[in-house]
Write a structure and sequence with these properties.
It is a single chain. The chain is α+β, with helices and mostly antiparallel strands. The chain is built from 11 helices and 12 strands. Strands 1, 2, 3, 4, 5, 6, 7, 8, 9, 10, 11 and 12 form a 12-stranded antiparallel β-sheet that branches. Strand 7 and strand 8 form a beta hairpin. The N and C termini lie far apart (48 Å). InterPro entries: Homeodomain-like_sf, HTH_AraC, PchR_regulatory_protein, Tscrpt_reg_AraC-type_HTH.
């Protein structure tokens, strides 16, 4: 199985990479590599993890200008695609129309022997893709459901296609699993078992998302959706900040009403419910994996009073921090 990347119109060969066929891995075997990217083709990294039936890849790339590459591949693969940030296009005779992704979108793609042009537009590209062997993927498809049966038939006839013509927004549950996969520190067989479970969980969420027809409509304009994600990113990067709804709304150029309504619509929870869940998850991780005392952890996630932190932690996990650490 080979992928080749070229510059203009299949001119100079930039990269040729061979991958093991999906069924050739031994039980428990896992391969991993990180490729550093340098100008003029971007500045960043691309991380790949492979084991039986699964190839995971993700990367962060800074692009000074639009990047155009030409792709040639003999892969037969189902791709769980997540564009975390940036824009991309695939122009290929394999598909009836251009496949274009924007920030915060996901879909499932079947690609058979791809050949065509790829375009990437930044200034930042954050991508996450999981490629599955088609026969392995089909085991997860629900039976006797219209949209899934059409996709199954496309795979069996080797017709490249999207599971749904319209992409869906990445949910907060999906973001959490993507983050777990990217930051997994386990090794060997334990890493493979962990990643297999996370891939299955992520695929479940994707299939449910496309099965639920109510997940498509949105009352928000695209610019407002982007502002909700900007608030989300600010919260993730500033867990210990002390900001009001009004502060957050002004930070991204909207108002409190739009922020409250839009954030709940996209992420299924309130702004401060989301913030608190992240704080508690971080506190739990620090309790189990660090030597910080409870006062230091309380301060780390923005609680001025350790007793208030302990009370909030108990409400979330039904156990006080000191007892969790003693366990």
């Amino acid at each position: 199985m080979t992928v080749r990347l070229y510059d203009k119109n299949f001119g100079n060969l930039l990269m040729e990479k061979n991958y093991p066929a999906p069924y050739f891995f031994n039980d428990g075997e896992i391969q991993e590599c990180i490729t550093q990217l340098f100008p003029p083709y971007g500045n960043g990294f691309y991380h790949e993890i492979s084991f039986a039936n699964v190839h995971i890849s993700f990367g962060n790339i800074l692009l000074p200008k639009r990047l155009q590459l030409y792709l040639e591949s003999d892969f037969d693969s189902v791709e769980m695609h997540f564009t975390l940030k940036g824009k991309s296009k695939a122009i290929s005779g394999n598909f009836q129309k251009t496949v274009a992704f924007d920030s915060y979108q996901h879909n499932i793609i079947y690609a058979h022997h791809m050949e065509g042009r790829m375009e990437f537009e930044g200034p930042e590209m954050h991508l996450f893709e999981i490629n599955l062997a088609p026969e392995f993927f089909k085991k997860f498809l629900p039976e006797h459901s219209g949209v899934f049966e059409i996709f199954r038939n496309s795979i069996e006839r080797q017709n490249s296609s999207l599971l749904q013509p319209e992409h869906n927004r990445i949910t907060q549950e999906m973001y959490q699993i993507l983050n777990d996969i990217m930051h997994c520190s386990r090794k060997g067989i334990f890493k493979r078992i962990y990643l297999e479970a996370k891939v299955s969980e992520l695929l479940l969420l994707q299939l449910e998302h496309f099965f639920d027809r109510d997940s498509f409509p949105s009352s928000l304009q695209k610019k407002d959706i982007e502002k909700m994600y900007d608030v989300r990113d600010y919260i993730i990067n500033n867990l210990n900040a002390d900001s009001s709804l009004n502060d957050l709304a002004h930070l991204v150029g909207t108002n409190e009403f739009t922020l409250k309504k839009g954030f709940k619509e996209i992420f299924g929870t309130t702004v401060f419910g989301f913030w608190n869940d992240l704080k508690m998850a971080q506190a739990k991780k620090l309790l189990l994996d660090s030597n910080l005392n409870i006062s230091e952890i309380s301060d780390n996630i923005g609680y001025k009073n350790p007793r208030h932190f302990s009370a909030a932690f108990k409400r979330k996990f039904n156990i006080v921090p000191s007892k969790l650490r003693n366990r």
